[in-house]
Design a protein that fits this description.
Membrane topology: Multi-pass membrane protein
Shape: globular
Keywords: Membrane, Transmembrane, Transmembrane helix, Transport
Main location: membrane
Strand content: under 5%
Pfam families: MFS_1
Subcellular location: Membrane
Order of helices and strands: HHHHHHHHHHHHHHHHHHHHHHH
CATH superfamily: MFS general substrate transporter like domains
Largest sheet: none
CATH architecture: Up-down Bundle
Structural class: mainly alpha
Number of domains: 1
Radius of gyration: 22 Å
Number of strands: 0
Distance between the termini: 20 Å
Length: 462
């Protein structure tokens, strides 16, 4: 599908203040990955832990892969007191951010060399709270735009992507700059990170709760179940509770399979699961690779964090323009191929050593392909969601992508060791990993083109 729209008209969408809130929440969503990802990996490396141990420590990210299990509750349960003050979406966001802040502060008090187990437990708590925060933030983003504003979907995806990378990469430069300063250690750095997360949480007090008819639709579905499935049940309380559980736990997933068909739905899930596998393997070992090749903490902070963040933010908007004009599905095809090809540049670094200009070039190319693919994927997942079950369905889809990014990539260190430290071959393998996902995408392309056309036609229909 193509859309006749000028660049000036498209970028005028970003004047919408709601997109600014999506950007800030994106930062809050990406920042916890710094806490238990790149910074934790660097801390563990400086403590002398092995590559395999560092890779396995990434299992804490498993929370992002299973958050769909409790995501339906985020659509239905109202937090006492907080819900009255902030509404459903904002109250859950603030609630989870509180746990992230407190636990990050506690990490600043841990001697990781003697109490690795406690550090792992605190990291798991951060991961669970952050994964739950992501459910609420993603639902907030989708609910913020009305169904007749689907033309702004890719713009919202660009803001979410650039926000995430601002939190992960730009704010993620701070700890690496501090790490090379005299008198600073990782405990002091985590104290600073806790303060930074607290500042990000202030956005909850500024934004407005999105309007939604979700509760009405869910209530109607509950009534339908009571009048059909439980019409002969004389116990009204049991009937009501059972209907509530069905709408909360079963309906979000059954609706997705019913709307797409079982075969197509399974192909969709397979594509989402496999699309980012190669990038996940690369990302989990990137800090270890940079250190082993010979780059300093300052160079890592400047290029891998700050440089990647800036490039990703810039190209997120350009990638969103392409996806808006030519279609999300085509954007996924092309960005997937480009993303795989960019991994080969890391193999070049592995062969020639710590050449700074090559590092900079790799950051630019990798940032571009990541931005393009991320914007396309965020818009794609949003397009697949039904507004009655935003949190549950988006979390189900996103968690599959996170599964390959976390649980599978936790074996990345083992793979490098099995290859006897052959980093060049490792990066070639990460490039090949994207091929199976593109095969699934090709097989269901006709269904997706129809779905995308319906998605963008909602505005004219209304």
């Amino acid at each position: 599908m193509t859309t006749d729209i000028s660049m000036k008209e498209y970028f005028s969408y970003f004047k919408d203040k709601r997109l600014i809130s999506i950007f800030i929440f994106g930062m809050a969503s990406g920042f916890p990955w710094v806490l238990i990802g790149s910074v934790m990996s660097a801390w563990l490396k400086d403590e002398g832990l092995s590559r395999s141990t560092i890779g396995l420590f990434g299992l804490v990210f498993g929370a992002y892969s299973i958050n769909f299990l409790w995501s339906p509750l985020i659509d239905r349960i109202k937090l006492p007191f907080l819900n009255k003050l902030f509404g459903l979406r904002r109250s859950w966001i603030l609630f989870t951010q509180f746990f992230i802040i407190i636990t990050t502060f506690l990490l600043s008090t841990v001697d990781i060399s003697t109490n690795l187990k406690l550090a792992a437990i605190l990291s798991i708590i951060i991961a669970i709270a952050s994964a739950t925060q992501d459910i609420s933030i993603d639902a907030f983003r989708i609910d913020t735009l009305a169904e007749n504003e689907s033309h702004k979907a890719t713009a919202a995806a660009a803001m979410a992507t650039s926000g995430w990378w601002s939190g992960y990469a730009l704010l993620g430069t701070v700890p690496f700059f501090f790490a090379d300063l005299p008198g600073w250690n990782w405990n002091n750095i985590y104290l600073v990170l806790a303060f930074m997360m607290a500042c990000l949480s202030l956005c909850v007090f500024w934004v407005k709760e999105p309007e939604s008819n979700r509760e009405k639709k869910q209530s109607e579905l509950e009534t339908h179940y009571q009048n059909t499935l439980f019409s002969h049940n004389k116990n009204a309380f049991i009937s009501k509770i059972t209907s509530w559980l069905l709408v909360t736990l079963i309906a979000p997933f059954s609706e997705f399979f019913k709307r797409n068909g079982v075969k197509t739905a399974l192909a969709l899930l397979a594509f989402i699961f496999l699309f980012k596998a190669g990038e996940a393997f690369l990302g989990r070992m990137s800090i270890v690779f940079y250190k082993e090749v010979g780059f300093t903490n300052t160079q890592i902070g400047m290029y891998s964090k700050f440089g990647t963040g800036v490039i990703t933010i810039i190209f997120a908007f350009l990638g969103s323009l392409f996806n808006h004009k030519y279609g999300i599905v085509k954007g996924l095809f092309i960005s997937g191929i480009a993303m795989a090809a960019s991994n080969l540049l890391f193999a070049v670094i592995a062969m020639i050593g710590p050449v700074e200009w090559m590092y900079a070039l790799t950051v630019v190319v990798d940032g571009f392909t990541q931005a393009w693919s991320l914007v396309a994927m965020v818009a794609f997942l949003s397009m697949l969601c039904d507004r009655s079950f935003t949190a549950a369905q988006y979390a189900l889809l996103a968690s599959l992508g996170n599964f390959s990014r976390t649980l599978l990539s936790s074996s990345s260190g083992i793979l490098v060791d099995w290859l006897n430290g052959n980093w060049a071959l490792f990066f070639v393998l990460t490039a090949v990993m994207v091929i199976p996902s593109l095969v699934f995408l090709y097989l269901i392309r006709h269904h997706l083109y129809r779905l995308e056309a319906n998605f963008h036609n909602k505005e004219s229909v209304k």
